[in-house]
């Protein structure tokens, strides 16, 4: 009989907050109803499933709800079960779809589904999977696949964030309480539908009591009236957004809002002084400025601009005032010329009025001040009593006849004396003269009416005024300070640290002062420093009287090491701009007495105590060096000179003295020499040149016979060497293989040579050598033969 296979899913509820389980339980009925439309048609109806529920014991559901979690332990999502699973091990549950095998895993035997990785609703809210039961052996499906959904339920794991922060806002100063400033917005990545995870509440952490914020709309408003921009222009407000409706346990985020108070015209202009006074010369040109007044305004921009006007004291309409657009000053100018003689001063009333109206009352802001103008008398030219004079004279008038007189007066208050002159350009023939003091015109040459009936001349009147002008040249800081004198300091070799000797004797610290050619009104103030900031030898001390003292840092000064030190010192004045110069102080290292008195400060006195000059010392050293060179050359030539190595006659007799430091052990002594040297097979055929003599002819020895591979015949080796030595024409007849070409030195017993006995006539008997044994028998025979040859 064919049986329908149904999958039974056990719904597993995982709750992290107390109230989430109730919300899920309320949705269970909705899940079951939603599934009914998704069941295949050949399956039992809703009523049939309910009836069979008690019989078969299974529940069919097509949706799991699982809260997001961060792991790391796996969490059970649900369980699959079929009626075919009667404990038969051939049943195998398989899972396919989104996240199958990676995020979700199924137990092949029990049908348990586990979430293996972190689930984040903000990344993916639900997963669609397919479950099926297959035969474990044949992998053939035992029932159709069933599709179900795993929905990730949100938890509060994301704090609110201000994406557009930090914010800036502005509001006019003196705004009313409740005036809107700006609005901030925070976002929460949690689910806004489920729970209160994304329900935000706004509050102010910093910025009270000046501002407030609406908890829901996040609109920032003015909370304090009368905020003045001139007192404080900028405020920093810290806003907090908290989820979970602001309840405890909710997450929060903050942002900052910089609120700037904008300016309004709430301050009147104010003159810097209650009254101004200007002195204007009476000859000031029309339109020229005669003075400036200034009214300050605490506002900024257009609210600080003012217009100036004269409202009193200018009845003659002589002055006008205009506004400087750059400096906002009122410039007083002339509309008509001034006359000192008619009016010497004016008292004007000047008003400064804001261009913009008062933002609070609507009326204009203004301020007024008094301006006193003193007219200064100018040196005006004399004025003639008439502009044109007419005089008559007879043509026969005598010379020096007074024709008439002109008169001019000085309009200045000083009434200086007037002098008169004729413009000679109008009297080229010099017909007339004028008295410079009283203006009387006299005849200088005879007149002829027939020639010239009219003479038009021009008379000039000038003032006589004298004044002594003293011009004083003002000083500026254009000279750098320098040492007051050429200082030269002396330092004792045995001086203590901190002491530098001056040119006087005694323990006086060297004092340095400076002078400046400039003459500032406040006097000089000099600043000293070493050019090398960390000078290892010297330092300076400020004496607080525009001078310094030079101090030594140690007491290890030696003339033979360095006899003179150059110490650069930078001196700067306090002028504007400051001037500086670098001056060098010369410090000599000297030899001093115990009392500190300077004895000698040069190197010659230290090196030549016997009174030799430096030139004489150099000459002596040169002679010594020349003699040493000659001796070295002579010795070198002597060493390279060739000497004959072969004895040419019987008189040239030499003996080799072999010196030993220890006594021989006889024939039983086997440690006095290395037998391995004689057994070296390389030594048979190798030729070792003699180092004790320099042969004139190169003798190539013949090759010796090699021994077998097992060793060397010592007797044969010695015979070969003996044969080579006997046939070598360059070698004397030495009896020893190890020879010396010179007589030994340093013997305590003295020389053993027989040259001295041979040179003398004394007779020696060598027969005692034969009595010493067989070792000295050969030596005795040689000396006996020499004696017999001598006798024959």
UniProtKB/TrEMBL annotation:
Keyword Hydrolase attributed: no
GO terms of molecular function: beta-catenin binding; cadherin binding; calcium ion binding
Cadherin domain ranges (all copies): 82-162, 163-271, 272-384, 385-483, 483-606
Leader sequence segment: 1-23
Location(s), subcellular: Cell junction, Adherens junction; Cell membrane
Keyword Repeat: yes
Membrane topology value: Single-pass type I membrane protein
UniProtKB keywords: Calcium, Cell adhesion, Cell junction, Cell membrane, Glycoprotein, Membrane, Metal-binding, Repeat, Signal, Transmembrane, Transmembrane helix
TM spans (from-to): 606-635
GO cellular component: adherens junction; axon terminus; catenin complex; synaptic cleft
Known function: Cadherins are calcium-dependent cell adhesion proteins.
Full protein name: Cadherin 8
């Amino acid at each position: 009989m064919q049986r329908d296979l149904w999958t039974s899913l056990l719904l597993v509820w995982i709750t992290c907050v107390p109230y989430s389980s109730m919300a899920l339980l309320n949705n269970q009925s909705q899940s079951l109803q939603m599934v009914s439309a998704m069941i295949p048609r050949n399956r039992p109806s809703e009523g049939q499933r309910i009836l069979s529920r008690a019989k078969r014991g299974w529940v069919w559901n097509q949706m799991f709800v699982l809260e997001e979690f961060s792991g790391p332990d796996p969490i059970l999502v649900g369980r699959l079960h079929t009626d075919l699973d009667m404990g038969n091990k051939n049943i195998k549950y398989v899972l396919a779809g989104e996240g199958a095998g990676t995020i979700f895993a199924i137990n092949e035997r029990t049908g348990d589904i586990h979430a293996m990785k972190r689930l984040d609703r903000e990344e993916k809210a639900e997963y669609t999977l397919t479950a099926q039961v297959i035969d474990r052996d044949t992998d053939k499906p035992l029932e159709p696949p069933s599709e179900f959904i795993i929905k990730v339920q949100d938890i509060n794991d994301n704090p609110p964030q201000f994406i557009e922060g930090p914010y800036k806002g502005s509001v006019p100063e003196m705004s009313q309480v409740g005036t809107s400033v700006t609005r901030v917005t925070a976002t929460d990545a949690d689910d806004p539908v489920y729970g209160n995870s994304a329900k935000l509440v706004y509050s102010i952490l910093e910025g009270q009591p000046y501002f407030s914020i609406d908890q829901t709309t996040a609109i920032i408003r003015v909370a304090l009236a009368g905020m003045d921009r001139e007192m404080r222009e900028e405020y920093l407000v810290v806003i907090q957004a908290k989820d979970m409706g602001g309840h405890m346990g909710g997450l929060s985020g903050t942002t900052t809002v910089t609120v700037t108070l904008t300016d309004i015209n709430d301050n009147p202009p104010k003159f810097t002084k209650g009254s101004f006074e200007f002195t204007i010369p009476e000859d000031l040109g029309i339109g020229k400025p005669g003075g400036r007044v200034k009214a300050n305004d605490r506002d900024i921009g257009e609210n600080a601009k003012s217009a100036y006007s004269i409202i009193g004291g200018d009845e003659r309409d002589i002055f006008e005032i205009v506004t400087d657009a750059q400096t906002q000053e009122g410039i007083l100018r002339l509309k008509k010329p001034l006359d000192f003689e008619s009016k010497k001063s004016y008292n004007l009333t000047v008003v400064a009025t804001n261009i913009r109206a008062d933002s609070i009352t609507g009326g204009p802001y203004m301020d007024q001040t008094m301006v006193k103008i003193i007219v200064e008398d100018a040196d005006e030219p004399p004025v003639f009593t008439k502009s044109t004079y007419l005089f008559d004279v007879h043509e026969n008038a005598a010379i020096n006849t007074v024709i008439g007189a002109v008169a001019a007066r000085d309009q200045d208050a000083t009434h200086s004396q007037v002098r008169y002159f004729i413009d000679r350009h109008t009297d080229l023939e010099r017909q007339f003269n004028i008295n410079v003091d009283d203006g009387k015109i006299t005849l200088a040459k005879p007149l002829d009416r027939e020639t010239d009936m009219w003479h038009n001349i021009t008379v000039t009147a000038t003032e006589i005024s004298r004044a002594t002008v003293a011009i004083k040249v003002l000083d500026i800081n254009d000279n750098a300070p320098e040492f007051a004198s050429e200082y030269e300091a002396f330092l004792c070799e045995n001086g203590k640290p901190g002491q530098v000797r001056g040119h006087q004797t005694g323990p006086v610290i060297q004092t340095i002062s400076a002078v400046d050619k400039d003459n500032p009104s406040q006097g000089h103030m000099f600043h000293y420093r070493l050019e090398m900031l960390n000078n290892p030898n010297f330092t300076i001390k400020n004496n607080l009287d525009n001078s310094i003292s030079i101090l030594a840092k140690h007491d290890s000064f030696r003339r033979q090491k360095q006899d003179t030190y150059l110490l650069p010192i930078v001196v700067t004045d306090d002028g504007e701009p400051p001037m500086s110069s670098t001056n060098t102080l010369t410090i000599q290292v000297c030899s001093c007495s115990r009392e500190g008195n300077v004895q000698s400060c040069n190197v010659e006195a230290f090196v030549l105590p016997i009174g030799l000059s430096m030139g004489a010392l150099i000459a002596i050293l040169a002679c010594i060096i020349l003699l040493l060179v000659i001796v070295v050359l002579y010795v070198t030539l002597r060493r390279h000179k060739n000497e004959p190595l072969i004895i040419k006659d019987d008189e040239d007799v030499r003996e080799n003295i072999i010196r030993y430091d220890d006594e021989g052990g006889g024939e039983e002594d086997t440690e006095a020499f290395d037998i391995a040297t004689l057994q070296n097979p390389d030594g048979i055929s190798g030729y070792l040149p003699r180092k004790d003599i320099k042969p004139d002819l190169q003798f190539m020895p013949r090759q010796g016979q090699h021994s077998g591979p097992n060793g060397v015949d010592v007797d044969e080796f010695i015979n070969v060497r003996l044969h080579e030595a006997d046939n070598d024409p360059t070698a004397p007849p030495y009896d020893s293989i190890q020879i010396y070409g010179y007589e030994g030195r340093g013997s305590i017993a003295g020389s053993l040579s027989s040259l001295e006995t041979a040179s003398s006539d004394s007779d020696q008997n060598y027969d005692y050598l034969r009595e010493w044994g067989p070792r000295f028998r050969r030596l005795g025979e040689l000396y006996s033969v020499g004696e017999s040859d001598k006798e024959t």
